[in-house]
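Weekly puzzle thread! Below is a chain. First person to post its structure in token form gets bragging rights.
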Amino acid sequence: MTSEPHPPAPCRACTERPALPFEFSMAFQPIVDVRSRSLFACEALVRGTDGSGAAAILAQVTAQNRYQFDQACRVKAVELAARLQIPCYVSINFLPNAVYQPATCIRATLEAARLNNFPPERLLFEVTEGEQVTDHDHLKGILSEYARQGFKTAIDDFGAGYSGLNLLAEFQPDIIKLDMALLRNIDKDPVRQAIVRGILGVCQALNIEAIAEGVETPEELAFLRSIGLYLFQGYLLARPAYEQIPEVDWSKVPHE
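Winning reply:
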């Protein structure tokens, strides 16, 4: 990690915003490396404090509280990861429209990592391709700053929108997560097979790792493994667990 000897002072967005008017917590879902049958990362997913899904929480996010929500998500994810002693990367989704100044808006996350003794080099930041981003230079600046500070970066839901290749042309993250809709029933869909093979070729040329997300059947996993994928996330292996690290069903992963 690259440390800042004199961190920049927080901007007004950090100091002049009221507290969130609602509470939430996180569930975690594993991302596994089938080569070593180990955890590569655990993704932090927003949940209600009663364990309910993300929809009711996200419906309360507005333009006025988006910044506080984004910051609170990061801090909550780090606090829980430290409490659970998560031994791998912790993947945190962020809202690019909630980041004003990348170098200053990361302060609360780093402070949470320090206070909870969680290694900041194990933080991975995901931005979804579907996020409505009007200023791509701003997003590129965020991702570049996070990479400069030593964090891993990922583009989530790659293939779900229309901007993925354009974004990839401007900034190369460490990881792309292939959208589940692109992978559904891929074992018997030659069109999807051709598209995913092409994406993997681009990843290999650019030294980018790929994660298959939303994998639900042994057949999907087997085909994707046969074409070189080794990082997987999905209900087949483990469902998200509220404030816990769920057990991975390794029986669904064939021995090589």
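Puzzle host: Confirmed. Bonus trivia for everyone else. The chain is about 35% helix and 20% strand.
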